[in-house]
Structure to design on (808 residues):
């Protein structure tokens, strides 16, 4: 009950209890999990001390999927069963994904409703399920290392992930039973990892060349508040493309032989290894064993490699220029943070240093920095740190709007708007006697509906018949702190209304999630029930303690006699229930009491705004006197 | 649940005088203070309806900040507080010479592609528009404080034209960046 306690900083009703929170970087190529322990943040290794988990899952063994390095070693033997870079398919329709799938040699099922599904020896798998298998391993690792249930997780996503891709990521976590505290943009996480040691204020650019995507973010840090000023990037450009450019060159060099999927995988792996070694050496031999029957090797110089990747690096700088323009800075960038293994490539570092006229920061391992930042944010969100420690104000990457006449998109929330955001716009009917209005929600920067991504459609019905243009229909977009959207529409004269939580058709339906959850938990039903009861009891006691403290502080001032009595009656009822075993009853009473105290909480929030303002006025008055 | 009604104007919310001229540093400072209190991250371990409430309050603060931070939305908001409707403002007549000048400017913008150094030409173009924008800001400020709402609204309409032009200039810049790659 943090909200009811806001007027009592430092007065926790419960003894302070450290919660277990983790940060997860669910990467295209590798994934990591990190946590803050005893005040310092670390990557959690597996039982043999390895930090990075390759984001690879093999489904050859029908009894259980194999995740990580073991799966990677089967990639050549079983290319169609070994799913890599699945992040590229998250939240995407099969139509978008065909080209990528062909390049990766996956077999796609004819999906219903455009859903991507891979055909493997163990049956069909969606990208969400594959991601869940990766998350499950990281979750297990955290359970083992931290020694108990995880209270919450922050999962990072590329800043440029759209609504569907974010929802798919959240679905994957739900499948594993992880409580997602927040989806966090990867570049923002990296900035947080640096931010705690860095100067108190300044402008930071984060250059994030991940396996499959490129993101650039510009943030301002000011007295513990991180404000994202602008984000940009390219969803179809990543470190994998650097490997692919080199692989392509090698193929041409060898007279463009036709390769089997396994051989192609091998070539790609060899190209990646060569790329990594070229960061320290000026020339390396690229091993063709397993690629060509003749085997052998090709020499690649750094010069050749640089010329191959230069166009790609230039593309990233174009995105940087646009992002700088969007940020509308008065002065230059103070620091540049590098993220992603490919930022070790010397040409990338030089190009970035040249462009921003600053040496990039590389103190923190570019492969780990995102997970570390996510762990810090998770630690804050779960409530392990004092208030006012660090606050993140992020933005939405792509504009949100609705379809208007003639197939045009009217933007309602423009990109780079700070979240949470709520925007409303009025529309009207265009025909006499029109009683319904179809609302089509879109995401993207282009003007035509056909060039934007369709997120959802719904209808506002029971508009009373009026002449064209007389109805006043207010459409409200609300984007939460995860960047997820809720849209409602209301006819202002009659009050007819409807709303939709945008769940893209590419994701899983709620029923599917429930079914999968049941399947994954069936063996642990009893544990789960016991845990639920324990959780509800803790929640109940917290609510009671919070309300008690709040009533003592402000009950007399902000509530009348009747409201106080209603609350007290419910509180006594809850106290009695907490002694029993009825989880559902406890839950429903907590909800009821929560709703009942909402007005009270709102008034206290108002009061705290007034107090916050009053505090500022005094301070700034002092400043003025000083000057 | 509907948006919480804070019975305050955006200016009162940030404890600022209802003026066009505004202390940006102070605005930013108070914005951050308010978000530190109300952002949903502060209630991440709270109940679902607390989080909903925080989302709504925080969104309102963001909206207020976005409105006051930039000159044109701030000017339009001041007119709204002064009782002018959207129709009142958009109904303002703009003199013919201004419209003619706008058409010329737009034509110039479209022709920038064909100059030897389109980037430099674009920069020059934007700088010139900025001079006009600043002039209109002064005009709005004067008219608004003198209580001449009609002239103030007139300045806003002209600013909207220039804003649109600057948007097109931005799109042009994006195209130039794309073409280089």
């Amino acid at each position: 009950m943090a909200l009811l306690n806001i007027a009592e900083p430092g007065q926790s009703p419960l003894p302070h209890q450290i919660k277990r929170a983790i940060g997860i970087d669910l990467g295209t190529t590798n994934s990591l999990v990190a946590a803050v322990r005893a005040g310092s943040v670390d990557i959690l290794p597996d039982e043999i001390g390895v930090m990075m988990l390759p984001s690879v899952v093999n489904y050859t063994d029908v009894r259980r999927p194999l995740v990580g390095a073991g799966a990677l070693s089967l990639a050549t033997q079983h290319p169609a069963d070994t799913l890599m870079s699945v992040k590229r398919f998250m939240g995407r329709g099969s139509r978008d994904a065909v080209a990528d799938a062909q390049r990766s040699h996956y077999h796609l099922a004819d999906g219903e409703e455009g859903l991507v599904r891979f055909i493997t020896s163990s049956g069909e798998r969606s990208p969400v399920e594959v991601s869940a298998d990766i998350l499950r391993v990281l979750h297990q690792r955290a359970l083992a290392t931290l020694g108990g249930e995880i209270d919450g997780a922050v999962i990072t996503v590329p800043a440029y992930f759209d609504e569907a891709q974010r929802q798919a990521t959240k679905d994957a976590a739900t499948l594993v039973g992880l409580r997602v505290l927040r989806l966090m943009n990867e570049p923002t996480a990296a900035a947080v990892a640096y931010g705690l040691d860095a100067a108190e204020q300044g402008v930071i650019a984060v250059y994030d060349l991940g396996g499959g995507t490129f993101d650039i973010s510009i943030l301002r840090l000011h007295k513990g508040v991180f404000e994202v000023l602008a984000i940009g990037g390219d969803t179809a450009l990543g470190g994998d493309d650097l490997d692919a450019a080199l692989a392509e060159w090698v193929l041409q060099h060898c007279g463009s032989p036709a390769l089997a999927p396994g051989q192609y995988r091998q070539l790609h792996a060899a190209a990646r290894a060569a790329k990594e070694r070229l960061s320290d050496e000026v020339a390396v031999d690229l091993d063709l064993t397993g690629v060509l029957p003749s085997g052998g090797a090709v020499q690649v110089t750094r010069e050749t490699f640089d010329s191959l990747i230069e166009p790609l690096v230039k593309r990233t700088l174009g995105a940087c220029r646009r992002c700088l323009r969007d940020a509308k800075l008065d002065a230059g960038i103070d620091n540049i943070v590098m993220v992603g293994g490919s930022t070790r490539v010397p040409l990338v570092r030089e190009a970035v240093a040249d462009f921003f006229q600053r040496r990039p920061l590389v103190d923190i391992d570019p492969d780990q920095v995102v997970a570390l930042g996510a762990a810090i944010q998770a630690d804050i969100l779960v409530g392990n740190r004092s208030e006012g420690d660090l606050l993140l104000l992020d933005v939405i990457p792509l504009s949100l709007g609705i379809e208007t006449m003639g197939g045009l998109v009217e933007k309602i929330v423009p990109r780079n708007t700070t979240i949470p955001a709520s925007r409303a716009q009025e529309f009207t009917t265009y025909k006499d006697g029109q009683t319904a209005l179809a609302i089509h929600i879109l995401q993207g920067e282009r003007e035509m509906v056909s060039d934007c991504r369709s997120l959802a459609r719904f209808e506002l019905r029971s508009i009373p018949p009026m002449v064209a243009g007389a109805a006043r229909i207010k459409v409200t977009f609300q984007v939460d702190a995860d960047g997820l959207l809720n849209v409602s529409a209301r006819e202002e004269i009659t009050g007819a209304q409807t709303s939709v939580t945008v769940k893209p058709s590419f994701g899983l339906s709620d029923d599917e999630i429930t079914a999968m959850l049941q399947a994954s938990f069936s063996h642990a039903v009893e544990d789960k029930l016991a845990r639920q009861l324990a959780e509800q009891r803790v929640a109940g006691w917290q609510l009671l303690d919070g309300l008690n403290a709040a009533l003592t502080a402000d009950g007399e001032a902000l509530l009348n006699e009747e409201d106080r009595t209603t609350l007290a009656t419910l509180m006594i009822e809850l106290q009695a229930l907490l002694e029993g075993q009825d989880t559902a009853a406890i839950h429903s009473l907590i909800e009821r009491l929560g709703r009942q105290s909402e007005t009270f909480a709102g008034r206290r929030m108002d009061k705290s705004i007034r107090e916050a303002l009053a505090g500022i006025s005094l301070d700034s008055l002092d400043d003025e006197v000083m000057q | 649940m509907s948006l919480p009604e804070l019975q305050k104007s955006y200016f009162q919310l940030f404890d600022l005088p209802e003026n066009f001229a505004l202390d940006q540093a102070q605005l930013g400072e108070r914005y951050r203070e308010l978000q530190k209190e109300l952002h949903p991250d502060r209630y991440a371990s709270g109940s679902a309806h607390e989080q909903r409430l925080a989302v709504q309050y925080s969104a309102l603060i963001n909206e207020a900040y976005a409105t006051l931070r930039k000159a044109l939305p701030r000017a339009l908001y001041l007119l709204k507080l002064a009782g002018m409707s959207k129709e009142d403002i958009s109904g303002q007549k703009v003199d013919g010479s201004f419209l003619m000048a706008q058409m010329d400017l737009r034509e110039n913008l479209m022709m920038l592609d064909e100059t030897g150094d389109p980037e430099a030409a674009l920069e020059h173009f934007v700088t010139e528009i900025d001079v006009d924008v600043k002039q209109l800001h002064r005009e709005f400020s004067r008219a608004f404080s003198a209580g001449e709402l009609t002239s103030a609204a007139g300045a806003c309409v002209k600013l909207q034209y220039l804003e649109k032009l600057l948007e097109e200039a931005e799109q042009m810049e994006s195209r130039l960046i794309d073409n280089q790659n």
